[in-house]
Write a structure and sequence with these properties.
10-stranded antiparallel sheet, mainly beta, globular, 2 helices
Length: 184
């Protein structure tokens, strides 16, 4: 079943075609290019080719009430560097300001385009004005040197800072960095 089909007539509407074309353009972008659809997709390139402001989380091409499956969104900073990559099993525009995600995985990148954090949320809502992603379900944040989980999370996509609340558990996997400079 195609995600933007008009349920009444079975035909593509103008809005559906427009969104499909925009999503196809995103899919053909080197940042969001992936191997043919499979359960596990790998990022082929973390180097953005878009110009600043061309595509980011504030202009997601999804009309209110519509759902998109298999949505992949790059997030660029003002200089055009890839700041993050959102991969959702499905996403739905709730209103002008909020988008709900189902099974969302976010990968953030350093200024040198190296993967930094991986954030996994089962159900979450992104506020497009504040760019704060929140979830009231158990969520996981991973980095090379730690894993942390909590019952609810707020993640600011601008500052790449977050707050986990309730039953928080952190596992440090690489103590060598912590012990490298004992004076700190």
């Amino acid at each position: 079943m195609l995600p933007f089909r008009d349920g009444r007539s079975g035909n593509w509407g103008f809005v559906g075609l427009s969104i499909l074309l925009i999503l196809l353009a995103l899919i053909n972008d080197p940042v969001s290019a992936a191997k043919p659809k499979s359960k596990k997709q790998k990022i082929l390139s973390a180097t953005p080719s878009a110009t600043p402001g061309e595509q980011n989380l504030t202009n997601i091409p999804l009309p209110i009430g519509h759902e998109a499956k298999g949505l992949v969104l790059p997030d660029f900073d003002l200089e055009g560097r890839l700041r993050g990559r959102f991969e959702a099993e499905s996403a739905k525009r709730l209103d002008e300001v909020h988008i709900g995600f189902h099974v969302l995985k976010i990968t953030t990148y350093t200024p040198e385009n190296q993967p930094d954090l991986t954030i996994e949320l089962s159900e979450s809502i992104l506020n497009l004005k504040t760019r704060i992603l929140s979830s009231n379900e158990r969520s996981t944040i991973k980095r090379a040197d730690f894993n942390i989980v909590g019952d609810s999370v707020e993640f600011d996509t601008n500052t790449r800072t977050g707050k986990l609340v309730g039953n928080v558990k952190m596992v440090i996997t690489s103590q060598s960095k912590l012990l490298a400079n004992p004076t700190e």
